[in-house]
Amino acid sequence: EGGCQTTFLVAPDLQTNRGVSRSCSGCRKYGKKPSPAPLCPWPYSRRPMERVHIDYCEYRGKMLLVMVDSFSKFFWCHVMNHDTTASKTLAVLFGWFCCRGFPTTLVSDNGPQFTSKEFAEKMSKWGIKHLLTPPYHPASNGLAERAVGTIKSHLKRMDCPVTPLELYVNLHSILYWHNASPQSSTDQTPFELMAKASVPRLFPQLQRPQKKTQEENRSVLPKNKVKLFQPGDQVLVYSNHTKLNSPGTVKEIKSNNSYIVLVDDCYKHVSGDNLRLLKDSVGGNFDTIETVPPDNSDNLNNSLSDSNISDDE
């Protein structure tokens, strides 16, 4: 009778077969995107305006510039209409900075207004350290992305029209109620942390130390395997455009999960989420596996300047 409950399949050469598949040039090139690295939180800010995050978003054809302070979670937002040039962006930021102070660090994506020469010059003149997140990796600027999501979500729920008065009034109402409400990550209102003002609270007895609250929130982050790469590592770089992998060499560590990688004689700013080590290969050929740096590799620091680093694919 058919009473078999468990069946075992013995494959003595399974590891060898895996090695052969990993060395296949086609398997490498058309492999899936690497699994994402574990969440890598930004360092705690110790005071208001120590680090701010900015981003653009669109609402019914109108462009909005959003900024959030990492310490207090204070929101700013300005209706830019269709003018998102570097000059207009700098003018709005300067007005915010004059009201609340100039930040130590400003984080943005790789939008053309943020990577322009004019923007870089003003950041340097104002004494602000400007950090660019890896291209096509919005999680690196998650604080700004969440602020954008919050503002757009409320505007949509209010079915806010885009007439100048209605959009202005509703947008600033959203900002006021957010900044006057205690945040789960700090257990205080952004107004209190930003201006150190004693804003009345509904339930003051529920207040907890800010750092304890942030530690509790951080403790629930997924415990994925940490992916670390060192300069000189041979890696496969996954392209978000072509969905293909290309061989490259890690040249510099930019941050906890951000690297400068030499791919096809071009330096690229890449998130660690898009990298995979080549150490498991056993023989086989890959069309462009040899990654040879340019002749001026002695001047690596100059080669890694912003003008020579292309956006990550």
Task: Please characterize this protein's 3D structure.
28% of the residues lie in helices and 21% in strands. With 313 residues, the protein is an alpha/beta fold. This is Integrase catalytic domain-containing protein. Residues 288-313 are annotated as: Disordered. It comes from Meganyctiphanes norvegica.
What topology does this entry show?
Layout: H1 14-22, H2 25-29, E1 51-59, E2 62-69, E3 75-81, H3 86-100, E4 105-108, H4 117-125, E5 129-132, H5 142-157, H6 164-179, H7 190-195, H8 210-218, E6 234-238, E7 245-255, E8 258-263, E9 266-271, E10 275-277, H9 300-303, E11 309-310
Parallel strand pairs: 1-4, 4-5, 9-11
Antiparallel strand pairs: 1-2, 2-3, 6-7, 6-10, 7-8, 8-9
Region (Disordered): 288-313
Biased composition (Low complexity): 295-313
Pfam families: rve
Short description:
With 313 residues, the chain is of the alpha/beta class. It has helices spanning 14-22, 25-29, 86-100, 117-125, 142-157, 164-179, 190-195, 210-218, 300-303, and strands at 51-59, 62-69, 75-81, 105-108, 129-132, 234-238, 245-255, 258-263, 266-271, 275-277, 309-310. Strand 6 and strand 7 form a beta hairpin.
